[in-house]
Write a structure and sequence with these properties.
Layout: H1 3-11, H2 16-32, H3 41-54, H4 60-68, H5 73-83, H6 95-115, E1 120-125, H7 132-145, E2 152-159, H8 162-170, E3 172-174, H9 175-179, H10 184-190, E4 191-194, E5 197-200, H11 202-205, E6 208-212, E7 225-229, H12 239-252, E8 253-260, E9 276-279, E10 282-285
Parallel strand pairs: 1-2, 1-7, 2-6, 7-8
Antiparallel strand pairs: 3-5, 4-5, 8-10, 9-10
Length: 288
């Protein structure tokens, strides 16, 4: 019997193995917010079984104990990197970046200018993976920033995976990664071609700051971000975790801020404060 089948069986039966699998599911949920219900037994088999072997654990119960120990940081990091999805590309889905370029940033700049607020824009990419979303935002922002001398501009990228955040900080991508979503003009303007890949230009890197962050934990920022991208991550959370996260994200945003979610995500179930708007074929939110 495969491990996935064992997971299915143990989740519905009593005994020690059931407790062990439950402990593993709780650990993954605590570390990165991905809830491994009975439909996701394949993730345990394909992504966590190799870690059990690599760290010479007896079984999943032993893996959980190792991860919870004071010396278990390496184990915890590997579990997070194995479970979290790193699938991304530059200008993913395209329409959010059109909305950013043609609607959101122009309206935001006009609102800041007319209100007398400090000339600063803060954007948060809340699940930035290996950084492609951050640098896509940075390309759009840099185009507009050339007409905004003296403005304080920054993009804050966070992800639960330390390995992904390190890749984002480095800003180096293979030919295949750069070929996914980037046209020749953006490659020429914002990347330096090296023998085996492409390095993000300093003009973009100066706009970006990265940090490891678990979205299930409290956020230190209050009324700080003008624009938040939180796309394709809440789909892995339990409903109560999802609702709590988005309500806490709103607390980090400036009044009138803009919230982007995944193309298949809808927030209407979270209340009237999350009324959708459509711009450039993209659904965005301006939570009240």
């Amino acid at each position: 019997m495969s491990l996935a089948a064992q997971v299915q069986q143990t989740l519905s039966s009593a005994g020690t193995k059931d407790a062990d699998i439950s402990a593993l599911i709780d650990l993954v949920d605590e570390l990165c917010g991905v809830y491994l219900d009975e439909s996701k037994g394949y993730l345990i088999e394909s992504r966590l079984a190799p870690i059990v072997k690599r760290f010479e654990c007896r079984d999943y119960s032993d893996l959980v104990q190792r991860a919870k120990s004071l010396a278990g940081n390496d184990v915890r990091t590997e579990i997070v990197d194995a479970i979290t999805t790193h699938e991304t590309l530059f200008f993913r889905d395209e329409s959010p970046f059109n909305a950013l370029r043609f609607k959101v940033l122009p309206d935001l700049i006009e609102a800041i200018e007319s209100s007398g607020r400090p000339r600063r824009i803060r954007i948060w990419s809340a699940a930035c993976s290996t950084g492609q979303e951050v640098y896509s935002i940075a390309m759009v922002l840099h185009e507009i920033a050339q007409a905004l001398p003296g403005w304080d501009l920054q993009i804050f990228g966070t992800d639960v995976s330390p390995a992904s955040v390190e890749t984002a900080r480095r800003g180096w991508y293979s030919n295949l990664e750069v070929g996914r979503g980037l046209d020749d003009m953006n490659k020429s303007n914002y990347f330096i071609h090296e023998a085996s890949g492409w390095q993000v230009a300093q003009d973009l890197q100066r706009l970006a700051k990265f940090e490891v962050r678990n979205l299930l934990r409290p956020f230190p920022e209050k009324n700080q971000f003008d624009i938040v991208f939180c796309r394709n991550v809440a789909i892995y959370f339990k409903p109560d975790q999802r609702a709590d996260m988005f309500h806490r994200i709103v607390e980090t945003m400036t009044p009138g801020g803009w919230l982007f979610v995944g193309s298949a995500e809808r927030l209407s179930d979270l209340g009237s404060a999350f009324a959708p708007q459509t711009h450039c074929n993209c659904t965005v939110y301006r939570p009240k």
